[in-house]
User: Which sequence fits this backbone?
């Protein structure tokens, strides 16, 4: 009878140990799945960061070109304004109405072109500024991704400890 009780005690102990082993295996599988998921997200985040960095570079280049076009347009506008002032002074000096009209028409056309160029450049400037705001939002996402990467590293360290 004593042998039967100790056999039952050993069986109970083996069942308890088997249950613990099963629980540890289940937990390990869960952690492995979570780690794999974090790795996939980390790789996706790295791809997103690279794409956003390229996008930022392209927008910055576009911004530089827009700044150059704006400077050119402003210079042309200044020249047109000077021409308009000159035209006004010239109108007072010139006595021949035909010469006045021709020169004034040319200067008015130059002024209109300069104003149109300035408006076009201003529109492009606003578009680039809008894109910059969008990129700043995307940059915040990138920074959040970097935080996620750090958390993933912490989870890996935690897994290694267990």
Assistant:
């Amino acid at each position: 009878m004593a042998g039967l009780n100790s056999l039952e005690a050993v069986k109970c102990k083996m069942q308890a140990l088997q249950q613990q082993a099963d629980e540890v295996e289940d937990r390990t599988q869960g952690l492995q799945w979570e780690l794999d998921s974090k790795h996939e997200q980390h790789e996706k985040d790295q791809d997103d960061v690279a794409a956003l960095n390229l996008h930022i570079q392209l927008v910055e280049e576009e911004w530089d070109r827009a700044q150059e076009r704006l400077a050119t347009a402003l210079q042309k506008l200044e020249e047109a304004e000077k021409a308009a002032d000159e035209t006004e002074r010239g109108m007072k000096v010139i006595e021949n109405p035909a010469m006045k009209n021709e020169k004034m028409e040319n200067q008015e056309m130059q002024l209109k072109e300069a104003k149109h160029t300035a408006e076009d450049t201003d529109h492009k400037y606003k578009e680039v500024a809008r894109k910059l705001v969008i990129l700043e939002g995307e940059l915040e996402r990138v920074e959040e991704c970097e935080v996620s990467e750090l958390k993933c590293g912490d989870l890996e360290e935690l897994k290694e400890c267990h």
Notes: The chain has a mean pLDDT of 87. Helices lie at 2-93, 97-161.
